[in-house]
Specification:
Elements (H helix, E strand, L loop, with lengths): L5 E2 L16 E2 L25 H15 L3 H14 L4 H13 L3 H14 L4 H13 L3 H14 L4 H13 L3 H14 L4 H13 L3 H14 L4 H13 L3 H14 L4 H13 L3 H14 L4 H13 L3 H14 L4 H13 L3 H14 L1 H17 L3 H5 L1
Antiparallel strand pairs: 1-2
Helix pairs in contact: 1-2, 2-3, 3-4, 3-5, 4-5, 5-6, 6-7, 7-8, 7-9, 8-9, 9-10, 9-11, 10-11, 11-12, 11-13, 12-13, 13-14, 13-15, 14-15, 15-16, 15-17, 16-17, 17-18, 18-19
């Protein structure tokens, strides 16, 4: 199963303790929300002279938790106008802007909060999440590290950093961060989902299912967990159960590309190759650079001996991600079938170098190939 990362975020208010909704990577495109600390964290201490400011701050928090973001912003405006050195006011207003999907204003407020209070862990985490939304992995990583340094018990910061490790193909460090997040907060749904997805990518299916089921107990409608569970059911050839999970996702998100890819895999498992290709092609109509859809379609075309079109899809996937081990692995099998043995070995080796999670399986294929074609590895050099 191809590696899956959390590559997008949703800007939305989820529950009273969460203003940003975090979407784990992967490649997934439909990764779920991650809670951040309550915007009231770090609020200014009240005094006789600041009772009115504190009252407006608390009013803003109340509006924020009710989803009344314009009213919350108006209250936080009053706070920062009255006390412009109060980092908590900027952080809280930034959370409200983020909930309104105004990322530029949110970032400006987070920057101000961190400038005023460099060790403000909640503001650092909020800014890290916003950088992740913008695809700025380096700044996400830096702010996640800073948040952890400021508050080593901030579970959500480990989860965010774990996503960056996963994007960098360092699955061991990603797993360690998801483990730490869950040791600090066992009910952090999106750490459960992220760890489950990572374990699934490493073919640790039973462990993955434990995390995914736990996430669904806490949040039954979590679409990413449903997609991952459908993939596990597909691996077990429990196609009816897989389809039920896929249908549940598509009922609320008809263009969820992960669910459509999973449906394509179910079609493939049931021998419905035309339906599978239709699903993968539909995804590519939505996201032309979706490397997983390219890989999946290429694999079916390869099995159908349509090598020219399969090579085109594998090459397109590798143009998007030159370290996409699965595409090298699939392309090696085409070279093998076509008798181009030096290219076969070269792509097996590229797959092994690119993706440690599949390296053992690729080595087995490579060894089988060399038993049939001794000396091909020397020709490749």
């Amino acid at each position: 199963m191809p590696k899956r990362f959390v590559l997008a975020f949703l800007l939305a208010l989820a529950v009273p303790d969460a203003a940003f909704a975090l979407q784990p990577v992967c490649e997934s495109g439909n990764c779920p929300p991650q809670a951040e600390p309550d915007p009231a964290d770090g609020k200014p201490a009240t005094s006789q002279d600041a009772i009115a400011v504190a009252a407006r701050f608390n009013s803003g928090i109340s509006h924020f938790k009710k989803g009344e973001f314009d009213e919350a912003i108006a209250d936080f405006d009053s706070v920062v106008q009255a006390e412009p050195q109060t980092a908590a006011g900027y952080h809280a207003r930034g959370r409200a802007w983020a909930a309104k999907k105004d990322a530029d204003r949110a970032l400006a407020d987070y920057n101000q909060a961190v400038e005023l209070q460099p060790n403000f862990a909640a503001a650092l985490l909020a800014r890290a999440n916003l950088y992740f939304i913008r695809g700025d992995a380096a700044r996400t990583f830096d702010d996640s590290n800073a948040a952890i340094a400021a508050d080593p018990r901030l579970a959500e910061a480990y989860n965010t950093r774990g996503l960056i490790w996963q994007m960098r193909a360092d699955s061991d460090r990603a797993l360690a961060d998801f483990d730490m997040a869950l040791s600090l907060n066992p009910r952090l749904v999106y750490a459960l989902v992220n760890r489950g997805s990572l374990l699934l990518a490493r073919n640790l299916v039973e462990r993955a299912l434990v995390d995914i089921q736990a996430a669904l107990q806490l949040q039954p409608g979590n679409t990413r967990a449903l997609v991952d569970r459908s993939a596990i059911f597909g691996l077990r050839r429990q196609y009816a159960a897989a389809q039920a999970d896929i249908d549940a996702v598509l009922a609320v998100e008809p263009r969820n590309v992960d669910a459509i890819i999973s449906r394509g895999r179910v079609h493939r498992g049931q021998g419905e190759m035309a339906g599978a290709i239709a699903d993968f092609s539909f995804v590519l109509g939505i996201e032309p650079r979706n490397k997983r859809a390219l890989y999946e379609r290429a694999t079916i075309l390869r099995l159908q001996r349509d090598y020219a079109r399969a090579l085109s899809d594998y090459n397109a996937a590798l143009a998007i991600d030159p370290r996409y081990g699965y595409a090298y692995w699939g392309r090696a099998k085409i070279w093998w079938s076509r008798g181009e043995y030096s290219r076969t070995v070269a792509d097996f080796d590229q797959a092994i170098a690119a993706d440690p999670d599949i390296a053992e399986d690729v080595r087995l294929d490579r060894a089988d190939f060399l038993r049939l074609h001794p000396g091909a590895d020397k020709q490749a050099r």
